[in-house]
Amino acid sequence: MIAQSLLELDRFVFTAINSLPHPRSMDIIAMVVSGISGYGLIWLFFGGLLVIREEIRDHRFIGRLGTTIALSLGVSELLLKPIIGRLRPIFEAGTTVVVPIAGHYSFPSTHAVVAFASARILSQKEPAIGIFMYVLAVCVCLSRIYLGHHYPLDTVFGSVLGLLIGEFVLFIARLLSPKKKAGKYRRGRV
Q1: 39 CB neighbour count, 10 Å cutoff
Q2: CA 172/CA 43 separation, integer angstroms
Q3: CA-CA distance, 43 to 23, in Å (whole number)?
Q4: Which phi and psi (to 5°) does residue 141 adopt?
Q5: Quick one: which of 73, 83, 60, 81 has its CA closest to 149?
Q6: How much is the mean pLDDT over the chain?
Q7: Kind and range of the H or E element at 18?
Q8: Residue 158 in contact with residue 141, Cβ under 8 Å?
Q9: Which of 3, 8, 60, 142 is the residue whose CA sits 20 to 30 A from 155?
Q10: Contacts (Cβ under 8 Å, ≥6 apart) of 49
């Protein structure tokens, strides 16, 4: 009963977003936002800018970002989508599809997983750009619904999964980071 109500709400929100007017200018913006986030391209670009700006002081950072993107792609595309098998909304009558898409499965949105996992890693490295990274990730999710490629629940679950993957990579990075050596003398009470 609850699951059915949730799916009905999901379809209602999808229809509300996907049935918005589709002027060519908005279609192009949505395609660009969606396209640059594919395969983690925009996130790697921002990661590269941070590495250049930081003069490669933290060479492991780009490895963490790359690992995050690869793990996000693998978990979403190779593990969850085939198991869950939810068809994309493009197979429903009345869906406005701006650009045809190759894959049949919708849940979770890989774009959302990669976007939020990458935003987590980038915002941890450079907190000053954190809000921008998360706003961009939300825009990616909205573009996927607008283009007719995903239901809202696909992007919501993908966002949560992405944040969890980002946290997991940061946790593993902390475990593997070399410990700072303690000084010869202890500070504190004498």
Answers
A1: 14
A2: 20
A3: 28
A4: -60, -45
A5: 81
A6: 86
A7: helix 2-18
A8: yes
A9: 60
A10: none
**Model's pTM, two decimal places?**
0.86
Q: Are 115 and 161 in contact (CB under 8 A)?
A: no
pLDDT bin (cut points 50, 70, 90) of residue 180 is low
How far, in Å, CA of 13 to CA of 7, rounded? 10
Q: Which residue has the higher pLDDT, 101 or 74?
A: 74
Q: Which two tokens stand for residue 173?
A: 């990075």
Length of the chain: 190
158 C-beta neighbours (distance < 10 Å), count: 30
Q: Is the pLDDT of residue 73 over 70?
A: yes
CB 113 within 8 A of CB 164: no
Place of tokens 């202890």: 186
* Separation of alpha carbons 143 and 135, rounded Å: 12
Nearest to 108, CA basis, from 137, 134, 70, 79 = 79
Q: pLDDT over 90 for what percent of the chain?
A: 51
pLDDT digits (tens, 9 = 90+) for 118-134: 999 999 988 888 999 99
Q: What does the alpha-carbon distance between residue 137 and residue 147 come to, in Å, rounded to a whole number?
A: 15
